[in-house]
Here is the input.
Amino acid sequence: RRTLDNNNNNNNKYYVSATTKEETRRKKRMAGENVLPPPPSTSTLLNTTGGVENNNNNNNTNKTSKDVIKYIELGDETYNVHDVVSMKAPEGEKPYIAKILRFDVHADEKEKKKADKNNEDKKETDEEIENRADKINVHVSWYYRPEESASGRKAFHGEHEVFASDHTDWVKASTIESKIHVYTLADYQELQSVNEKSFFSRFAYKAATSEFKPDHVQVFCKCSMPYNPDLFMVECGECKEWFHPECIGTSREDLDKNLKNSDSEWFCDECVRTHKRPKIT
Here is the structure.
């Protein structure tokens, strides 16, 4: 089948360079600007049971800790590990999109909590500390918009397309704006309606090397372009190839008018010549 090499920009006529502004934004994120360093606590890994595995070589290794923060509450919304959220971006830019990996209390708040254990009158509960957004760090993995990647936005990228990346950071919980949904392309196509909180992802993106997985994708139409869910296409009833109306010298309006019968079929020029098909049946 015909494919397009997603990592070879020299042979891709749909390659579009990122603008200076977008490239600067990407470099800032890669440099870790406007994000927090990891909190100065014991290095931990979230395990599959929702507890914490201690990385130090001591007797506590692999024991579940009760101190793990499983959720936070911001306003009326509860945010859990693995939720996808939009996050505040500099003025004039689109919100960042990220998946929550884990939560951690600020180091100074941990010290305060420890000291308050000796004073019952001032002691705060875990829930009170965990749900104060300005006292919580969030470890996130970023989703990149096409224009934020090194190769920039291409013609086949959908308006609501994002790339799941291996770029992670610690950020403040107070920068979370709202929950959003990132679907697979197949699930996105099944949606009855799409809003500003609906996105899809079909590529994984390595931010450091600017590589995509998968690196080859199927292409369609005379223009040999990968599928863009925002663009209307019509299927040939014989060869089952898909075409953009503008690539076959027609328009969506004309096709809708001629194919108003649900049993009607359209045939491409090649199949009309080869199989003696009428253009529309």
Summary: The longest helix spans residues 20-31. The longest strand covers residues 96-105. Residues 200 and 242 are 21 Å apart (CA to CA). The helical segments are 20-31, 107-116, 126-130, 185-189, 252-258, 269-274.
